[in-house]
Specification:
By secondary structure, the protein is α/β, with parallel strands linked by helices. The protein contains three helices and three strands. Strands 2-1-3 form a three-stranded parallel beta sheet, with helices on both faces.
């Protein structure tokens, strides 16, 4: 009974939202696929400007930025 309660909570919990910036297309695709596989909602852009615009209009739990 305890495990079904845990499953129910996990199913109703909101996903952690991650916004990342990565200019390399292959790396960007790898980041998105990897993080989505473990259950995160991921938006990834190729420019800091686009990331800043999204950050101003939407809420995210974590920001990842390429140097």
């Amino acid at each position: 009974m305890h495990s079904s309660h845990s499953k129910r909570l996990a199913a109703t919990s909101p996903k952690v939202r991650i916004l990342c910036t990565e200019d390399d297309a292959h790396t960007r695709e790898l980041i998105v696929k990897t993080l989505q596989t473990v259950g995160y909602e991921v938006l990834c852009t190729d420019s800091a400007e686009e990331t800043l615009n999204l950050a101003k209009t939407e809420n995210f739990d974590l920001y990842l930025m390429d140097n």
